[in-house]
Fold:
Amino acid sequence: MSEIKIVPVVSKSDLNIFIKLPWKIYKGIPNWVPPLIYERKKILNTKKNPFFQHAEMELFLAYKDGKPAGRIAAIKNDLHIQYQNDNAAFLGFFECIDDQQVANLLFDEAVKWAKSKGFSNIKGPANPSSNDDWGLLIEGFTLPPALMMTYNPEYYIRLFDNYGFKKAKDLVAYLLTNSKVVNSGKLSRLADVIRNRYNVKITSIDLKNFSSELNKVKYVYNKAWAPNWGFVPLTDAEINVIASDLKNVVEPSLVLFAEIDNKTVGFTLTIPDLNVIFKKMNGRMFPFGFLNFFTQKKKIDLCRIITLGIIPEYQKKGIDALLYWEIVNRAADIGIMYGEASWILEDNEMMNNAMINIGGEIYKKYRIYQLDF
Structure:
C-alpha cells in the first residue's frame, strides 16, 4: 500500500521542489506554458513580495512513496476580509498527480490551516489572490493559456468536485478576431459617436514619465473595479512591483488612457501574449532564454486585454467601446490580429454585453471554488 505524507515547506530545498513540481505534473501536456522560475520565487517570497504586507501563507508538499506528488498553499488575505466582508481563506498554487487520495490530503491540510485561523470557508485557486493567477480552467483545454492566465489538467475538476468543493463563481475569456470586429462596422460607428459626444481623448502611456502615469493607473484601477465580486485593491507597493515587472515588456501603444476635460476616466492594459515566447524558455531566462525573448516577438499574433476599466461616474457611456476600438486597430498596426479579453465575471452584464456586441466569443472558462466549514 502506498505511503502518502504531507509536509510543510520549511527550507530552500523544499521551496525548489515546490516550484519545480509542475514540470513533473505537465510532462507530455503540450499546451502547458512553464512559468519563469525566478518569477515564481519572487511571488512566493513572503519577505519581499508586498502582497505579504497584508497577507500570510503556508506551503505544503505531498509525497507518495517518497516522491513529490502534489503541492498546495493556504493563504490569509487581510485586504480581502476587509473589502469583501468575507471570512474566507484561500488555497492556491495547487498541483497534483491524478490521485484523489493525494489531493484530499492536500485539501485537508489547507482546510485545517484555515480553520486554525478562524475562517468559515476557503476559496480558490488563488495564486495568491484575485489580482494574480485566479481560477481553475474548466473549459478550453485545447489551447495554451494567454499571458498571466492559468492552465491545468482537466482531471483537476474531478479532484475538486470529489472533495466537496462547490462553484463560487465562474470567469470567462473572450476571443476577439480583428476581421470580425472591423468588418461589422458596428464598433467603428459607436467609437466615432462616443469620441465626439464626450470629446474623449485616447493617449498611450508615456514611459518617460512613468511615475506620473502610474499614479493615473492607481486612481482608475482601485476606483473602477471596487464594486466587483472578489475585488481586492492593489496597494501602492504592489502596483509599483507589478509596474516595474511589466515596464520592460509592455507595448506602449496598447496601454491606453481615456481622458475627458484633462481628467483620466479610463484605463486599459493590453499586452502581447508573451507566453508564445515563454513556452520555449522552459522556465529559464538564462543562459539562452533571453535570446528567445528578443528574437521571437514577431511571432506573437494574440494580445491579452488584462484590465479595462472606467471610473463609476463615466460608466455606461460607451467609453469602453472606444477603448476596444483603439486596441483592435493599434494591435493590427503591429501585426496582432487576435485578442483575448480575460478574465470577466460570468455575471458582469456590462462587460459581457460589451464583448458580445463587438463580436467576442467565449472560448475559455475558469472556476473559483468554495468549501464552507
In short: The mean pLDDT is 94. The domain at 4-170 is CATH 3.40.630.30 (Aminopeptidase).
